[in-house]
Fold:
Amino acid sequence: MRTVLRASSCALALVGAACDTTQPLQLSEQAVEVVLGAQASVDIYDVYDRLVDTNGDNLPDVRSGQAECRQVFVGASPLTASRTVPWRVSVDIRVVRAGSTEPQTLLTFDPFDPFASVLSYDTTIESAAPAPPTPPIFFSNGRRVSVASRDYLENCAGQLDLPDPNLGGFPLPFEVTLSKGDTIIVQARKQPDNQHGQLPPQFSVRSQPVLTGSIVIEGRTVTLAGTAASTMDSGSGVSFSYTVR
Amino acid sequence: MSRRKAPWTSAVAAVLWLAAAPVTATMEEPQEPAPTPEAESAAEEKPRTEREARWYGEVASWVSQPLGLDYVPAAVRDPDDPFATGILGVPHGTDLDLRVRAGYVLPGEFGRVLVTYWSQRARGALEGFDPSRFVFGETLALPFFAGFRDDGLADGFRAASLTKTRDLRIDYTRLAFTGKRIEAWWSVGMRRVSHDRSLQASYFALSPDLPSLVPPVTPPTSPRTDLLPRPDRVDLSSSFEGRGLGVGLDLSVPFGRQVRLEAGASIAALRGRMSSAYESQTHLYRCDGSTCASLGLEILSYPFDELEDPDILDETRQVTMPLGVSSSSLPASATVLDAYIGARWTVWRTVEVFGGFRQSRYQNVGADLRPESVTLSENGVFNFESVSRTDRSAGYEGYYFGVAYRY
Structure:
């Protein structure tokens, strides 16, 4: 009986040792968001809708279709703030798949597309102090925005044909699905300021913008390799990468 | 083109002549009376095992694994421990190759002549990728501009090796002594070995922290993908062909009438010629435009901040630096050592099956050439002040199984 038990124990030990407890690799895919943005110091304006008293009752009747744009000053100095600016960039996004050495182009810019690769507008809106009427003109819906906002550009600068924020024609943030071991490489460069006026949107900045990039996975901003923030120099850029580990 | 007769064929002829000499001597001895037809027919009716089989052949599968090839394409650095850098060798699995042997038993007790041939082609591969972590040392590349940062480090590498060995033996073997428990055979013969080895390695900068290589939106130009780091490449190869004399001793221990254990060893000293070559390709960024000239820039170095300037980016190109050294047909000597142990079972009259474990070592059948001290002159010409040569060997070991037939 003892011999049988010993033999059984040895057999079980051998079977146990032979078992491979390593779980098979799971090639989990992750949705990755590439975020690019530019920040610059820009002027602040109070913008109001203009209403007109058409029947003389000292009350606003109809919208004039124009906006009242008033630059905000602090003392004698214009009020400025660091805001997201719809700067144009040239961009190139590649991915090196796990085990491969050849990068695949996911996105590249088309230099001949006047609407391509424009970063996000400033969406910050604060309330503006009520503006006293100057009959027959009345002001309503006062809001404080920057010159980099779509509101200002459309209503105050008269730029009606503004491009939507995009990277190479893709919406911002740029989304891609990566697997374990994949590496995404992002390179972008600001349009130099001296050429800025050639393409919309057109606005002035108090300081050259800083281009920043980030990668977000499941709502979490990950640590990048490379340079994810540009200098303020005209035409500088970012170049960073991330490997899914 | 005249074709010279290879010296080893003369040596083989000499061995055969030596083996045949005793036969001639026996023919000169007084001949016995010719057998009668009845006696001849009686001889034909005897079982074949009782007659003296003349021809011998065997085919074996040797599941061998190469050892000690010393293919080391990369080192891996531990950023947290300066003493923990390890070297990465190309692993090799087992390969099944045929080892064939044919022989002729000389009349009388004058031994046998055996011809043995074996060849193996072993491929190995190794790769490692850790994008953006430059932890792989380019052990084979020349230090000049090796690595994207010119520091000899890569964040990925891929290496492939190919090793080919062909071994031909022609032996004369004869009984040394015999007893109740053991039988020994000595052997002497010619051996011809050719050995080729090559290792190709590519080192990558998959995720380089370069400044942005895309130009500004305006004026319209395309991304400078030509500036993405090209992989550094190294190609090492050597080829040896040699021949020489070998001696051996084989022991056989019978266990009953059908089974016997066997073991043996042999050694051969070879003389031949070896050719080796080394090629390395590294890369650098060179700026040769007016902007760079005004700034005194020519060869850019890490971190390549100059590329932030669109004008410098436009004037920069990636240049390949090819460097190599080779030696052709240099005299070389090598040694071959063999040892085996196994068993042989007579399964039917003249048919045997056998198996065992065999080890072979081909000493100094390869050489790696490497430029050691390289200088770069002002006009961009490289000079090798010294070149190192490292002898390489190849070992094979593994189990073998086969079948033999005597006729």
In short: Chain B touches chain A through 33 residues (CB under 8 Å).
